[in-house]
Amino acid sequence: MVEKWRFINSGKCSPSYNMALDEALLNWHSEGMIPPTVRFYGWNPATLSIGYFQKVEKEIDIEQVNEYGLGFVRRPTGGRGVLHDQELTYSVIVSENHEKMPASVTEAYRVISEGILEGFRQVGLDAYFAIPRSDEEKNALKNPRSAVCFDAPSWYELVVEGRKVAGSAQTRQKGVILQHGSIILDMDEERLFNLFRYSNNRVKERMRRNFKTKAVSINSLRESPLSLNEAVDAFRLGFEKGLNIQLEEYQLSDEEEKQILILAQKYESDDWNYRK
């Protein structure tokens, strides 16, 4: 029998709410209160999220973030800076000891990302997993030169025609895997590159030139643009096929919403977002 997982489509939410809900789902699943869950969401306003270990002062131009009127939040997951704008964001919450989940982080990443791979197939794109082969590629993963997430694919991230089309990050807490990531529909490259600090303009321009060869949005690859609603339908089906599950729609209760709003205070605080 096909296993039933929960499906939540949150729509566009504030940055603090988005991170709080992902954390709440992890907590609830660890306590056995909810089944494994796939969640889709967007961002209002468009937001720069940074990885758990990134240093704001060193890497991020906060004045530009504010000038563009963007939200700003630190994720509970690792990885680098992501501008969440014209995209479908997903999260997957599942126990580490679930029968579908390999013990190794990279292999679990591959299994979860099968859902995204199938989603790309649903929208007519021939995506495949990036597997770093050379020592140079492996070293680049350990020592990223750029604070921009889409600057290079990591193990098992999704690539079309050699360029990254989705970026994901993972954390494991309380025996639960939380993996979330961005499926980019359209990309404002100039704005993205203005949000980070560089040693000088020459470095910035070189990285931006290189970026064009490393990352691409879905709608740059399709003849007809994909709408957000079409993306939701395609990637929902992709997760069902890729993970061999059935997704059942769920609406959060008032009590759950209250808990999320309390948790969201953490993600609104300077102590969390700007910590050294």
From TrEMBL:
<dbReference type="InterPro" id="IPR024898">
    <property type="entry name" value="LipM"/>
</dbReference>
<keyword id="KW-0012">Acyltransferase</keyword>
<comment type="subunit">
    <text>Monomer.</text>
</comment>
<dbReference type="InterPro" id="IPR004143">
    <property type="entry name" value="BPL_LPL_catalytic"/>
</dbReference>
<dbReference type="Pfam" id="PF21948">
    <property type="entry name" value="LplA-B_cat"/>
</dbReference>
<keyword id="KW-0808">Transferase</keyword>
<dbReference type="GO" id="GO:0009249">
    <property type="term" value="P:protein lipoylation"/>
</dbReference>
<comment type="pathway">
    <text>Protein modification; protein lipoylation via endogenous pathway; protein N(6)-(lipoyl)lysine from octanoyl-[acyl-carrier-protein].</text>
</comment>
<dbReference type="InterPro" id="IPR050664">
    <property type="entry name" value="Octanoyltrans_LipM/LipL"/>
</dbReference>
<dbReference type="GO" id="GO:0033819">
    <property type="term" value="F:lipoyl(octanoyl) transferase activity"/>
</dbReference>
<comment type="function">
    <text>Catalyzes the transfer of endogenously produced octanoic acid from octanoyl-acyl-carrier-protein onto the lipoyl domain of GcvH, an intermediate carrier during protein lipoylation.</text>
</comment>
<dbReference type="GO" id="GO:0009107">
    <property type="term" value="P:lipoate biosynthetic process"/>
</dbReference>
<feature type="domain" description="BPL/LPL catalytic">
    <location>
        <begin position="32"/>
        <end position="247"/>
    </location>
</feature>
<protein>
    <recommendedName>
        <fullName>Octanoyltransferase LipM</fullName>
        <ecNumber>2.3.1.181</ecNumber>
    </recommendedName>
</protein>
<feature type="active site" description="Acyl-thioester intermediate">
    <location>
        <position position="149"/>
    </location>
</feature>
<dbReference type="InterPro" id="IPR045864">
    <property type="entry name" value="aa-tRNA-synth_II/BPL/LPL"/>
</dbReference>
<comment type="similarity">
    <text>Belongs to the octanoyltransferase LipM family.</text>
</comment>
<feature type="site" description="Lowers pKa of active site Cys">
    <location>
        <position position="164"/>
    </location>
</feature>
